[in-house]
Amino acid sequence: PHSLTLILLTTVMASFGIVVVQLVVVIVIATLYALSTNATLKRMAVYCPPATVMMFVGIILGALFDATDEITSVFQFDPHIFFNVLLPPIIFQAGFSLRKPYFFRNFGSIAALAFVGTLVSSFVIGGLLYAFYSNDKIFTDAAGNPAAPSFVNCMILGSLVSAVDPVSTIAVFSSSGVSYGLYTLVFGESIVNDAMAIVVNKSFVDIETDGTSTGSAVGKAMLSIILLAIGSTALGCAFGALSAWLHKKLKLRKEPPLELALLISFSYLSFVVAEELHVSGIMSALFCGILMDHYTMYNVTQPTIDAAKSLFTMLAHLAESFVFVYLGMAVFTLDKHDFKFGFSVVTLLCCFVGRAISVVPIVFLVNLGRKRKISIQQTFVMWLSGLRGAVAFALALKVPTYRDPFVSTTLFVCITTTVVLGGLTYPVLSWLKLSAATGDQRRASDAMTSEQSTKHWLVSLDRDRLQPLLRLNTEHRKSIMEDDRMRFERNPRSKYGIGLFEGDHELHEDDEHVLAEELHARENDREDGLGGGDDDSQMAINDIKTTSI
């Protein structure tokens, strides 16, 4: 009877935990809806970004759940769930939605800031911490004796807090109207920086676990970083190219659900295979997303494009929101806090110094080879955008030595930078007069970037070699569009795959007319090379489809 009672209680608490998780999902969706529709909240978002709001929601929920141990255990931040479930859709969508001309035009600057800058920041922060605390026994070892951190310990902490996570800053950039050039530099540098920081941190964690000497640690880390970066990028590009080639050759265009299923499979397969091969799944997913949007989306039907864009965007937004909610909950759901205020403040100051040293000199060097220089004001904003977030916190949970103080310090850095720097971004942009790019200025910037991009060697390689291999030719695309139009005229529901299941509601006549006009407009866009998901205005038809269904 006692065992049966225990089993019943465990089952009831597990069921209750599932209910609570679903309740949190509803709260997150409701918060996202309020942030995107309420005029007052949208105006406040420039001073209190969505990431900060979600973090405060998590803190409140964590305080409420702290009274119940069973619920607290359900919402403990799990780095495996974060890296394998939440982070891949965020990174893939980041690559999938990038403005390709700006990204590749600034690829050299982005690579320098992300790869070299992350290394510089890691060594600066780690070196400063080692200089301050190498003789200060502020920690406790496994035996309970006072101990000072080693150089590798400081490098582990320095590398994980170098993981810049400017999600909230990007949201402010979008609403403030900054130039696409600055937007792309910050956005591109941030998403590649996350992947690079994971590689650097993993290298030093392996060194600490294997007991390698400090002298050989640096050389081994540098070699691992180079090999992992090259291998991850190549693997992601290979999966993106394979996805485009298969969609070009296979006859899946008459079956949009199967076409979409294959597209989704490749979006996650690049991450899984990279992790199994012990390279960076994050970098692989990033470049896979870039290539799939640039090539694969030209080989699929419009229903698949619409569904894929909606699905990837929805998954990324929900994953980002859950990440910050869980980060806020961690204030109360952590098993043990070992907060050292002085050490945490010094680490935060080292982050500011490391970010400055990793941005300013590199910007000066890349400006030597740029026709359009990065201004001092833009450089300051790039330094300010160095927020730390869930990537740094998840890496801290996997630290092999001094885990508790490192986790508490990282959580302090993450919350402080997200709340303070995220809230300061819009006032600083306004002060520097970088927050009001007009439509004419943006169009002029677009035209200049387009003209310059046509002369770039990557564009020539893409146009002359890769597009003929991985994209359907223009005549073939036109024939597919004509088939879509004929199917649409025979049965409007089949255009969007709605008629595949019996019992679906018919579209209204007005909706059919609007959908037909939208199809005609999109054909013209794709013939002009605008397809593949680069124009956000193509998402407007989703509202009509949702209402009709």
What's a quick, concise take on this entry?
By secondary structure, this protein is mostly helical. The protein is built from 23 helices and two strands. The protein starts with a helix and ends with a helix.
Describe the structure.
This protein has helices spanning 2-37, 39-44, 50-65, 69-74, 79-96, 100-105, 107-133, 151-160, 167-176, 180-210, 214-249, 256-276, 281-294, 302-333, 341-367, 376-384, 390-396, 403-431, 439-453, 457-470, 474-490, 509-527, 541-548; strands at 139-140, 146-147. It has 549 residues and is mostly helical. α10 (180-210) runs antiparallel to α13. The longest helix has 36 residues, at 2-37. Residues 438-444, 494-515 and 525-549 have low confidence and may be disordered.
Mean pLDDT across residues: 76
* Helix-strand string: HHHHHHHEEHHHHHHHHHHHHHHHH
Q: Estimate what percentage of residues fall within beta strands.
A: under 5%
**Ends distance:** 52 Å
* Structural class category: mainly alpha
**Percentage of residues in helical conformation:** over 70%
Integer-rounded radius of gyration: 25 Å
Care to count the β-strands?
2
- Residue windows where pLDDT falls under 50 for at least 5 positions: 438-444, 494-515, 525-549
Q: What would you call the shape?
A: globular
Biggest sheet strand order reads 1-2
Largest sheet: 2 strands, antiparallel
Number of helices: 23
